[in-house]
Amino acid sequence: CSRLHNRPTISPTLLMQNMYQNPALNAPPGPDGLPIPVDPRKSQEHFEDFYEDIFEELAKHGELENLNICDNLADHMVGSVYAKFRDEDAAARSMAALQGRFYAGRPIMIEFSPVTDFREATCR
Amino acid sequence: PPARPRRQRKSGFDQPPPGGVLGVPATGFSDAPAGFSADPVAAAVLPPAPP
Question: Which CATH number covers residue A101?
Answer without folding.
Answer: 3.30.70.330
